[in-house]
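Incident review: delayed structure delivery

Summary: a single-chain prediction request sat in the queue longer than the usual turnaround. Root cause was a stuck worker, restarted by the on-call engineer. No data loss occurred. The affected request and its eventual output are reproduced below so the record is complete for anyone auditing the incident later.

Affected input:
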Amino acid sequence: MTSFSSALCSIADDRRSRAHRRNIVITGLLALTIALFALTLILGQSYVPPGDVFRVLIGEDVPGASFAVGELRLPRAVLSVLAGLSFGLGGVSFQTMLRNPLASPDIIGISSGASAAAVFAIVVLSLSGLLVSIFAVAAGLGVAIFVYGLSFRNGVAGTRLTLIGIGVSAMLESMIAYVLARAPAWNLQEAMRWLVGSVNGAEIGQALPLLAGLTIFGGLLLSRARDLEALRLGDDMAAALGVDVARIRIIVVVTAVGLIALATALTGPIAFVAFLSGPIAARLVGNQGSLLIPSALVGAILVLAGDYCGQFLLPSRYPVGVVTGALGAPYLLYLVARTNRTGGSA
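Output delivered after worker restart:
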């Protein structure tokens, strides 16, 4: 009896320790996100004192700071945070649901679908602005449904969905290359933005639909965090725990794709943010408990830091997607090699 009580106490202590570590990590990620956000407002091509930044944020007219902060830096920083949160949430939702770190929207074709639709709308249909974003969102949802349908056979296996998604993504990339090869010079620059991901030219109004989508879709995902975590145990175990597996899968697919498609429609496919956020969060907090909030914060940090590095810390200026792509590609190769060594288990 004493040994049994000791075992229970040990389990309780272990749970408290993991919960404490999780709280510390989330607090640290939140603090780092706020610090990077403040840095992008204070320090750029010129230095703006924190006091002047605060005055601009509360609506005062500050000569020399209102334009730099209010018109240039603030919209860029806000869009970076919202896009990072959306990519992080959407990416880790797919990875958790399918129990496969390769099952990211970057890999399975959702981002490619949105980009292909945007490039087609710009080059072939000569559209711009909101209509291009609508095309991108619709295409992202359509590709997700298409890939999900092709991979469904008595359920959806993560490996099968990933392989089909890679194939669909390759076809979409070929379509993009063909359309760009026929593009007039005046459309080419705008279309190229959809291939790398960028927050250049951000406007505060662009953040409103993304904020609305993040509130609705992100809120729904967070409300289903426990059910989503149960899917990590397998469909049979999740069903035994009372989870409606089919319903949760549909909710996750719709909400995660909605987040990714909205973010892609406004910033382009910022490479590997959705792919990297979940694994980084898992290494920081451990695999116990939901990774939704930590992954969202990691996504925001990656976009903020990547955009700042691309603008000010490298010899030339690069869009944020170039920086995150340079970080993500080596990790993808490492993960594929590791999965191959372990026989398919990441």
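Verification: The chain is about 75% helix and 0% strand.
Action items: add queue-age alerting; document worker restart procedure.
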